[in-house]
Automatic annotation (TrEMBL):
UniProt KW Iron keyword: yes
Organism: Cryptosporangium phraense
One Pfam family of this chain: p450
Stored SUPFAM superfamilies: Cytochrome P450 (SSF48264)
Keywords in alphabetical order: Heme, Iron, Metal-binding, Monooxygenase, Oxidoreductase
InterPro entries assigned to the protein according to its UniProt record, in alphabetical order: Cyt_P450, Cyt_P450_B, Cyt_P450_CS, Cyt_P450_sf
Protein name: Cytochrome P450
Length: 418
């Protein structure tokens, strides 16, 4: 299995990538795959080593890896200058996730001024209200397609609230976001440059408008946020950060919600246990993140030659840190292929990455998952998988997103008893 299938452009591994990760790791936790010459990091300690070494590893191609990759071969003992020369031509090059130090630190500080603990707390109140409102019609119908009926509108409305998008603009936002590009599709289309044009134009209007006419709202807070040295960012710099948060915070969370609710509906004893012992929901969420990591992995490119886990990595190598594989490394997690609610180190998972780019939205994703699960359990006495859509237990049919970046169900049909 190790070399037979093309993880990036083939469809064979979309449904169940885990045996592939295991077979890579069994051969070596740092192994070059032959189809696109990507060094696959599937071991936990090795993943940690790559994430922590920002001197050697650049995030310039963090989301897209080899597609399209750099326009020139990255040859030489030190390819730092080549990376700098060509980074602006790579997809998403204006977004924080592809920035390296020192630029990253400045933009990350700005981002953390938008997602303050206070703002997250205010947003959490909205999360519970939004969950209630969206569940209402689904529960009344007794059945629902959970991904489009709940998870997507929910994560969209939560981020809109976090960033203060005015209610009257939300429909247009939802339409505009539907036109965003397909990141990491196994179909091989490389992304257009800056697929977030819609968000950029909306947020530019908001931020510029609030700078001229401040109000008492979240957008005004964003418009007046400064860099750590006190200087005022350009409008476009604030806009980029807001657009990043908007784009990064949705599909990922949708997939977490899908995986969590699928398991709840598949496993009746576990569902009964969580109904009785609600305080175990946070642990359930962590184990879901470990077991079905919504982001399969992130890319890095080496500036100079190095070794990781004893394996030589030449300068200019594209590395994929496969979070989902590291999260099932038996050297770190006992019996990793078993979903275990009692696992004591589930929280060590790296579903949110590690190091300087570690996900700033993790508290929000956890809060969304918690509110969704609590409210579903509050309002139902039983949640089941629809046999009409997914087939009977033991012979289910599920379809997963055909991308090498995200792991998650495309749809999840449920039935509920109130
Ligand atoms: C379960 C849901 C989520 C998962 C699994 C997830 C996963 C990740 C991962 C793995 C990274 C690191 C990428 C890298 O190192 O190259 C990341 C970064 C990021 N995430 Fe999330 N994320 C989730 C939800 C969110 C939410 C809700 C938000 C917004 C509030 C968000 C905003 C971001 C941003 C802005 C970055 C870039 C940070 C930086 O480059 O410094 N994410 N996320």
């Amino acid at each position: 299995m190790t070399t037979e299938y093309d993880f990036f452009l083939g469809n064979e591994l979309v449904e169940d990538p885990y045996p592939y990760y295991r077979s890579l790791r069994d051969r070596c936790p740092v192994l070059r795959e032959p189809h696109h010459d990507v060094m696959m990091v599937t071991g936990y300690d090795e993943a940690m080593a790559v994430y922590s070494d920002t001197t050697t590893f650049s995030s310039a191609s963090s989301v897209t890896g080899p597609f399209p990759g750099f326009p020139v071969p990255l040859e030489g003992d030190d390819v730092s200058d080549l990376i700098e020369e060509h980074r602006s031509g790579l997809p998403m090059s204006d977004q924080i996730i592809t920035m390296d130090l020192p630029t990253h630190a400045k933009h990350r500080a700005l981002l953390m001024r938008l997602i303050t603990p206070r703002r997250l707390k205010e947003n959490e109140e909205a999360i519970w209200r939004l969950a209630d409102g969206l569940l209402e019609p689904l529960l009344a119908a007794g059945k629902a397609e959970f991904i489009s009926g709940f998870a997507q509108p929910f994560s969209f409305l939560v981020i809109s609230d976090l960033l203060g998008v005015p209610a009257e603009d939300q429909t247009e936002f939802s339409r505009g976001m539907g036109q965003a590009g397909n990141i990491g599709g196994t179909g091989g289309d490389s992304m257009q440059h800056s697929p977030l044009e819609f968000l950029y134009s909306q947020f530019s209007t908001y931020i510029a408008g609030r700078r001229e006419n401040p109000r008492n709202d979240v957008l005004t807070g964003m418009a007046s946020a400064t860099f750590p040295d006190g200087s005022q960012p350009e409008v476009i710099e604030v806009v980029r950060v807001a657009a990043n948060v908007f784009a990064a915070g949705q599909e990922t969370t949708v997939r977490l919600l899908g995986a969590a609710v699928q398991r709840l509906a598949e496993d009746a004893p576990l569902q009964a246990l969580l109904r009785r012992e609600r305080d175990r929901i946070p642990q359930f969420i962590e184990e879901t993140l470990r077991f079905e990591s919504p982001v399969k992995g992130d890319f890095r490119v080496s500036r100079t030659a190095t070794t990781v886990g004893g394996v030589d990595i030449p300068a200019g190598t594209t590395v994929m840190v496969v979070n989902a594989a590291a999260n099932r490394d038996p050297r770190h997690f006992d019996d990793p292929e078993t979903f275990d609610l009692d696992r004591t180190n589930a929280r060590h998972h790296m579903a949110f990455g590690r190091g300087i780019h570690t996900c700033p939205g993790a508290p929000l994703a956890r809060a969304e998952a918690r509110a969704c699960l609590e409210r579903l359990l509050d309002r139902t006495s039983d949640i089941r998988i629809s046999e009409a859509v997914h087939g009977p237990a033991g012979a289910r049919r599920y379809s997963y997103l055909p991308t090498f970046i995200l792991r998650g169900l495309t749809h999840l049909n449920l039935e509920f008893d109130s």
